[in-house]
Design goal:
This protein has twelve helices and no strands. It has about 325 residues and is mainly alpha-helical.
């Protein structure tokens, strides 16, 4: 069993970070329909325009040769649902299913922003979490969008939101950050050891509506909370390069499969059946992914976002 497969936990970390970002941009703004509308507009402007650029590229490749995409779904794609980010098992961009969760979390947050006063904000998110848990225990809604809105995976977004609210109201001991990182590593390591001993892969975690948030979600929550506490206590500082990677993260997210696929196909063509082929893919694709992410952010994403955002507000760069 390859340990790299446990890297799918990055999605759970992504969801929790998104919850934190939403908490940052909405705290103190509940009960105001205009603020709610601005929030939703900015979130949609953040997601869709640059996503459509990449979806168009993948669509062109799909129309030219369907065998280039979606091997896992029989090289099929639901084009309309993909462009609208409606839930589908046949997306054009393989990883875009996570954006569907992101999108409907934003819509749910918009509704709470519009109808709840600030003093009931946390209660609204807790109620949302309760409904998601109830749906998970009894049955999922029949409608696909409601399946996303009330999925147990949404608990990770909600955990991120609550994490930030707790972070604002408390100040832990300086050693708490390291303790949380250690707990995160221990929690994940225990799951990995158990998985290696009893299962052929980690799908028993990834495909479970309860085990995924309980194992990957809790580990990601502790990891992020630990980093926030270390940063607050000045025990950890992020350099300009890492801050830059954070800025490029959405472009990296959208482009990385395309870049890795390019290097993978190249290696398969020229170095077939060579053991070092996968090492070559890793060696070249990782820096290439960062380079493409930087170029995409600088020359495509940032100009597009600046065009759609209102001049008085600066777009968030980490969600």
């Amino acid at each position: 069993m390859s340990l790299f497969q446990f890297g799918v936990m990055g999605v759970d970390l992504f969801f929790i970070i998104s919850g934190v970002v939403i908490a940052v941009v909405t705290t103190g703004k509940f009960g105001n329909l205009r603020s709610a509308g601005t929030f939703l507009y900015h979130r949609l402007a953040r997601i869709y325009p640059i996503y459509w650029c990449y979806a168009a590229i993948v669509l062109a490749a799909f129309l030219y040769n369907p065998a280039w995409i979606n091997a896992g779904s029989g090289h099929q794609a639901n084009i309309l649902r993909s462009f609208l980010l409606l839930p589908t098992t046949q997306p054009l961009i393989m990883q875009s299913w996570t954006l569907s969760f992101e999108l409907y979390f934003y819509i749910g947050a918009f509704l709470l922003l519009a109808v709840l006063p600030n003093r009931f904000a946390v209660a609204g998110f807790v109620l949302w979490a309760g409904i998601a848990v109830t749906c998970g225990v009894f049955s999922h809604p029949a409608q696909q969008i409601l399946q996303v809105v009330f999925s147990t995976s949404v608990l990770e977004f909600l955990a991120g939101y609550l994490l930030y609210r707790v972070y604002l109201r408390t100040r832990l001991h300086p050693s708490a950050g390291l303790a949380m990182l250690a707990a995160s590593a221990l929690w994940l390591a225990t799951a990995i050891v158990w998985s290696v001993a009893h299962y052929p892969d980690q799908l028993w975690i990834e495909t479970s509506i309860w085990l995924r948030p309980a194992i990957y979600g809790i580990s990601a929550f502790l990891f992020l909370y630990g980093l926030l506490e270390l940063e607050r206590s000045a025990q950890l500082r992020f350099g300009r390069f890492l801050e830059g990677v954070g800025d490029w993260s959405y472009s990296v997210y959208l482009s990385h499969i395309i870049v890795i696929e390019f290097f993978g196909r190249t290696a398969a063509r020229f170095f077939a059946h060579r053991r070092f082929a996968i090492l070559l893919v890793d060696l070249f694709s990782i820096p290439a992914v960062l380079l493409v992410g930087y170029l995409s952010f600088t020359f495509v994403e940032r100009p597009i976002t600046a065009f759609f955002y209102r001049p008085t507000l600066k777009p968030a760069t980490s969600s």
